[in-house]
Amino acid sequence: MPGAVTNITSTPRVTQLYRLSGMSLPRMNDKVDRKVILDSPTMKLAIERVERYRGKTLSEIAKDLKIPWTASLANKGAGGLIGELILGLKNNAFSAPDMQDVGVEVKYLPVYLDKSIPKEPTQITMINYLTVVDETWGTASIRKKIARVFWVGYAVSRQGKKWVQVDYRVLGWHLEIMPESDLKVCEKDWQCIKEYVATRAFYFKKAYTKTRIIPQILEHA
Predict the structure, then answer these.
(1) Whole-structure pTM value
(2) Which structural domain range is residue 79 located in?
């Protein structure tokens, strides 16, 4: 999917690690997989940028990058803003992972520091009702989004006090290679959703046909 996702590397680069073109992800040993990904130029640059701004607030990051903290900037979602400022990534509405050359999705996790809990569930991807019914688990777009995830955490509160977005602070990163056992659980959930979608249809409500349609039919009966 050339051009579908902005790569975080400064110049376009195609590695021999993966060639993702709609095919299922290759299966590797988790330890080997992690080492290969961490040693890739794309991941090294991502880690370097997150480490550079670890402990910094969003306003401090914008100032360092000489980007004015405008109203339009403040109105953006914090996660997308972190991706844009630090990693140079735009919102990815495509089925491929954010870092296509290494097959890694990027997710941003808001954390309540006083409780060490997430602020909210993390959305993976929207369901494409037109394509999910024709997918297999091996080619499922969601699988490419969860198998390998580069998490960037950011703090949204401390000691029970919630911060405004300008004060959100970058915590760090974690590369998660989802274990096969967890993938099996996700596969079952995905299968349930697929079967549900496949048997659904759009309906006119009874109230609509009762008040708008049936009277017109009976008028001429």
Answers:
(1) 0.75
(2) 30-219
